TrEMBL record:
InterPro entries: C-N_Hydrolase, C-N_Hydrolase_sf, Gln-dep_NAD_synthase, NAD/GMP_synthase, NAD_synthase, Rossmann-like_a/b/a_fold. It comes from Maribrevibacterium harenarium. HAMAP family: NadE_glutamine_dep (MF_02090). L-glutamine binds at S173, K179. The gene is nadE. It comes from the Bacteria. Pathway: Cofactor biosynthesis; NAD(+) biosynthesis; NAD(+) from deamido-NAD(+) (L-Gln route): step 1/1. The keyword Thylakoid does not apply. It holds the Pfam family NAD_synthase. Deamido-NAD(+) binds at N374, E403, K514. GO terms for molecular function: ATP binding; glutaminase activity; NAD+ synthase (glutamine-hydrolyzing) activity; NAD+ synthase activity. This is Glutamine-dependent NAD(+) synthetase.
C-alpha cells in the first residue's frame, strides 16, 4: 500500500482567517485532484497566519476560528487535511493541529513545547498540551507534532509509545543563517531516536521582519533525508510512502528529487527579496523609493528592491550636496540605468542653505559639528518622505546592521523609511552580497564595491575615520550582540585591544534609543535588532564582566 502526502509550503496573511481558510480549501482540492494526494499537511497556525501576536487576544478570535473549522468540515473533501490553528479548550487557548477528513475532525493535537526565546512568545498566549495525537490514515498510525515539539525528545517519544508509525510535523520556522543545516541535523536525531520517518512542513513567505524559506523535507527512520522541497518557492510538494509488512508494519518514504541547497549569500539575498516583497505586497504599497547615494548599501538595497517587485515600481533618487563626489553621482546614475528604474537627481544644497540661514541666530557662537552633517541627512529624509506621501511609494531605508549597532546613522535622516532590507546585515556581509548579486547579473558598478565607504557628509570623509575597520567592528559586534559575550570575554579571545572593545560596546549601549525608532527589517541572523534583542533604553549597566 502507498500513502501520498502533500506538503503545503504556503504563505498566509496574518489575521485574514477567512481568506486563509479559502486558501486551505483550494490547496486541498488541488492536492486531491491534481496530485492524487491522500494527505495534505499545512504549516503551524495556518488559519491565523504566523505569528498572529496579540491578535490572539482579540475577543472575536474564538468565534472566527470556530467558523473557519466549520467551513473546513463542510467541504467534505476526501483528503486528510492536517491544519494548524489556535483553539480554546476548557477556557484555555492552545496552539492546535486538527486532522479533518470528509467532514469529520478525526483528532486534534495541542502543542506541548512552547518556545519563549528569541522571536517566539508562545507562553504569552498559549497553554501547553500534554497528550499525543495519533490518527489512523489509510491504515497508518500518524502522530502529529508542532514545530518546537521536534526540538525536544519527549513529544516524539510519547507519540511513538502511543503507536505512531509516522510523524507529521507542522512548522513556522523562520530563517536565519545556517538554520537549514540545523533543522536537518535535528530531524536526523529525532528519527534515529524513535526509528520513525518524519515529514517536516514549513511556511514559505514573510511577516514583517520574519522570513520563512520553506524547505519542507522528509527523513526516513534512519534519519536520511529522502525528500527536499525547494527553498523560497510557494507550492504543493509530494512525498510518497509505502507501507511494508514484515515483523512489524513499517512506513518507508519513496526516494524523490532533492532540491539543491543554497549557500549563505544566496539564502540571505533571497530572504531579503522575499521579506521586502511580502512587506510591500501585503501592506499594499504602490512601490518603493530610496536614496541612491553611490555607496554600496544603497546599491545593494536597490538591487533587492528591483528583484522583489520589479523595476517599474522602484524610484531611485540621488540627492547630491557639496561633499558628494562626482564618482558617487556617476556610479548612482550607472546603476539606475542598468537596473531600469525611474531615476531622479534632486540637489539639496538650496534646502540645506535655507535651513542654515533660518537657524543662523540659534547657531551663533557655536562651532561646526555633526549638527551640520545631520542636517544634510535630514534634508534627504524630508525629500524622500515627500515623494513617498505624494506617490504612495514606501521609503526603503538603506542602513546596515554595523551602522545601526553603533549609531552611525541620523535619526529622521538616513533612518527615515518604512522597511530596511539591510537592518540585520553586517557591513562585511554587505560586500559579499553585492558580489553575489553581480554574479547573477552585473548591476552594481565595481568601484561602488571597492571604494572606501563614506557618508560624504564632510570633506574627504571615510567611515573608518569614525569607526574601527569593518572586519574588526563586525567581529566584536557578532560576539556582543549575537552571542551576548561580555567585554572581558571578548578581550579574552586575544584578538582585540581593550580601548576598541570598550568603545564599540559603549556605542552599542548608547544607541538603543535610535534602534527603537528604526524601521522594521529582514531578520537574517540568530539575533537581530527588534523582537530578538530587548534591552532597556534607560539603564545603568556597566560594561565589563
Amino acid at each position: 500500500m502507498s500513502l501520498k502526502i502533500i506538503m503545503a509550503q504556503l504563505d498566509m496573511l496574518v489575521g485574514d482567517i477567512k481568506s486563509n481558510t479559502q486558501a486551505v480549501l483550494a490547496a486541498a482540492q488541488e492536492a486531491l485532484t491534481l496530485h492524487q494526494g491522500d494527505v495534505i499537511v499545512f504549516p503551524e497556525l495556518t488559519l491565523t497566519g504566523y505569528p498572529p501576536e496579540d491578535l490572539l487576544l482579540r475577543p472575536s478570535l474564538e468565534q472566527r476560528i470556530e467558523s473557519a473549522i466549520q467551513a473546513l468540515l463542510a467541504s467534505n473533501l476526501d483528503i486528510y487535511m492536517v491544519v494548524g490553528y489556535p483553539r480554546f479548550i476548557d477556557g484555555s487557548l492552545f496552539n492546535c493541529a486538527g486532522v479533518i477528513h470528509q467532514g469529520v475532525l478525526l483528532g486534534e493535537y495541542a502543542k506541548q513545547k512552547l518556545p519563549n526565546i528569541q522571536v517566539f512568545d508562545d507562553k504569552r498566549y498559549f497553554a501547553a498540551g500534554t497528550e499525543p495525537c495519533i490518527v489512523n490514515i489509510k491504515g497508518v498510525q500518524a502522530g502529529i507534532s508542532i514545530c518546537e515539539d521536534i526540538w525536544h525528545p519527549e513529544p516524539i517519544a510519547q507519540a511513538k509509545a502511543a503507536g505512531a508509525e509516522l510523524i507529521l510535523n507542522l512548522n513556522a520556522s523562520p530563517f536565519h543563517i545556517e538554520k537549514m543545516g540545523t533543522r536537518e541535523a535535528l530531524l536526523r536525531q529525532r528519527a534515529t531516536e524513535t526509528e520513525l520517518p518524519i515529514v517536516y512542513v514549513n511556511y514559505m513567505g514573510a511577516q514583517d521582519e520574519l522570513v520563512y524559506e520553506g524547505g519542507s523535507f522528509v527523513v526516513d527512520a534512519q534519519g536520511n533525508k529522502c525528500v527536499q522541497a525547494p527553498w523560497y518557492e510557494n507550492g504543493l510538494y509530494g512525498c510518497e510512502f509505502t507501507v511494508v509488512e514484515d515483523r512489524a508494519q513499517r512506513v518507508e518514504p519513496v526516494v524523490a528529487q532533492i532540491a539543491p541547497a543554497f549557500g549563505v549569500e544566496a539564502s540571505v539575498y533571497q530572504a531579503m527579496v522575499v521579506g521586502l516583497r511580502g512587506y510591500i505586497e501585503k501592506n499594499r504599497f504602490k512601490g518603493i523609493v530610496l536614496g541612491l547615494s553611490g555607496g554600496i548599501d544603497s546599491a545593494l538595497s536597490l538591487a533587492v528592491a528591483v528583484d522583489a517587485i520589479g523595476a517599474d515600481r522602484v524610484q531611485a533618487v540621488m540627492m547630491p550636496y557639496t561633499y558628494t563626489s562626482s564618482m558617487s553621482v556617476e556610479d548612482a546614475a550607472e546603476q539606475a540605468k542598468r537596473m531600469g528604474v525611474q531615476y531622479s537627481v534632486l540637489p539639496i544644497e538650496p534646502m540645506v542653505s535655507a535651513f542654515m540661514a533660518t537657524l543662523a541666530p540659534e547657531f551663533e557662537g557655536y562651532g561646526k559639528d555633526t549638527t551640520e552633517e545631520n542636517l544634510q541627512a535630514r534634508t534627504r529624509g524630508v525629500t524622500l518622505m515627500a515623494i513617498s506621501n505624494k506617490k504612495g511609494y514606501m521609503v526603503l531605508t538603506t542602513g546596515n546592521k554595523s551602522e545601526m549597532a553603533v549609531g552611525y546613522a541620523t535619526l529622521y535622516g538616513d533612518m527615515v523609511g518604512g522597511y530596511s532590507v539591510l537592518k540585520d546585515v553586517f557591513k562585511t556581509l554587505v560586500f559579499r552580497l553585492a558580489r553575489y548579486r553581480n554574479e547573477l547579473g552585473y548591476v552594481i558598478p565595481e568601484r561602488v564595491i571597492t571604494r572606501p565607504p563614506s557618508a560624504e557628509l564632510a570633506p574627504d570623509q571615510k567611515d573608518e575615520d569614525s569607526l574601527p575597520d569593518y572586519d574588526t567592528l563586525d567581529a566584536i559586534l557578532h560576539l556582543y550582540i549575537e552571542q551576548d559575550q561580555s567585554a572581558q570575554a571578548i578581550l579574552a579571545t586575544g584578538e582585540f585591544d581593550q580601548e576598541t572593545v570598550y568603545r564599540v560596546l559603549r556605542l552599542v549601549d548608547l544607541n538603543e534609543y535610535k534602534r527603537r525608532q528604526a524601521p522594521v527589517g529582514v531578520r537574517v541572523t540568530e539575533r537581530g535588532f527588534g523582537r530578538d534583542r530587548r534591552y532597556p533604553i534607560t539603564n545603568g549597566w556597566h560594561i565589563g564582566e
